[in-house]
Amino acid sequence: MNPKVMTHRKNITKEKNSRGFSLGELREANVSVNRANSLGIILDFRRGTVREGNVALLKDLVNKNIETKKQRKVDAQKQVKEVKENVKSEKVKKKLSLKKVSIKKEESKVKKVKTEKPKKESTKKKTTEVKTEAKEVKTKKPAKVSAKKSSPKKE
User: Fold this and answer.
1) pTM score of the predicted model
2) In degrees to the nearest 10, what's the CA dihedral of 98, 99, 102, 108?
């Protein structure tokens, strides 16, 4: 990520690392200043030269950034799908376990009801027999005749 600059000193030309990319290089690579700042690209406003190597380097940086963004989106979508599948499988497991529990409870209730039904029927028969006997007893008793006491009349 180091842009290069040509230096001339005592008839010797050297290539060295510069402080940042020039605005001309950004224009050639079709990168705006705001985009360069968001990508973390350092700008050198004092430089005015445009080097093809630096322009190619800028284009590579932007392309890599675009590729990594696409890859992040794909990875995020995969993670979302995995999480949704896990949640669905957990819900299905819970439903199945609840169904199993409810089936077991129903089976135990059915067993209890089967064992309790004969007892209830026998008690019902006994209570109805007792009630009929009580009715018979009531009918056998003679009716009581109650005489009203007359209150003294005032004259």
Assistant:
1) 0.47
2) -130
